[in-house]
Design brief:
two-stranded antiparallel ribbon, 230 residues, globular, nine-stranded mixed beta sheet, alpha/beta
């Protein structure tokens, strides 16, 4: 099985390297990294159509794309790696829970792959303010997730959205919990002065539906959500 690895943090981000390690742990395959050349977090499902998209072949298994995550999935599936069987996006530095899935480039890459009839998994890592991500732990958790989800049935038009909790020393081992997307909006607070709006909403204080992906991840477990595109 041929895997494409992409993200929205850029091809040099530690998260995509941690994802690659996790994939190798589970499948003994490294996959092919086809990811944005630079950081494009929050670009949603933006596609580049008004200019040329350059590619930079760094090796046989790493190609940097001068476009968005959705561009990466589209070009990878349609041209660069037409034998691909699965698209993995992440590990994103920051959660993509509930409403985040509509603005996330990480999720958009897998959504574009799904539209092209290629299954996929988007993986993100919630960050507790003031603490760094331990990418070795993130890779270990992702390997557990891949070992489970790569053997789960995935109907056409659906993909998996996964959010890892931010574990600190002494925290219990997380459980994998299948749960729905949270329906609540992101915080909407702004500081306003002289017709200028500065966003000051606190991600960790967002509203959440009971049992939703936000509540599961914030409670220290791995939130797994099946998202339906059609």
């Amino acid at each position: 099985m041929t895997f494409i690895l992409t993200n929205d943090d850029g091809i040099n981000a530690p998260g995509i390297q941690a994802l690659r390690v996790a994939l190798q742990t589970v499948t003994q395959q490294a996959g092919v990294m086809i990811a944005p050349k630079g950081h494009l977090s929050g670009c949603s499902h933006q596609l580049t159509t008004g200019r040329s998209i350059p590619i930079e072949r760094r090796s046989e298994q790493a190609i940097a794309i001068g476009g968005t995550p959705a561009d990466c999935a589209r070009i990878a599936v349609s041209y660069l790696q037409p034998d691909v069987k699965f698209v993995l996006s992440g590990i994103n530095a920051g959660g993509n829970l509930g409403a985040d899935t509509y603005v996330s480039g990480t999720v958009a890459a897998v959504r574009e792959a799904t539209l092209l009839r290629i299954p996929g998994i988007a993986i993100s890592h919630y960050i507790k303010r003031g603490y760094a991500i331990d990418w070795a732990i993130a890779s270990q958790l992702t390997a557990q997730v891949l070992d489970k989800l790569l053997h789960q049935p995935l109907e056409p038009g659906t993909f998996w959205n996964v959010n890892l909790p931010h574990l600190l020393e002494g925290d219990r081992n997380p459980k994998m919990i299948f749960c729905p997307l949270c329906s609540q909006p992101l915080p909407t607070e702004y500081w306003v002065e002289n017709e200028l709006f500065q966003y000051v909403g606190e991600y960790a204080k967002r509203a959440r539906d009971p049992g939703s992906d936000v509540e599961v991840c914030f409670s220290g477990d791995i939130a797994i959500t099946k998202i339906q595109v059609w």
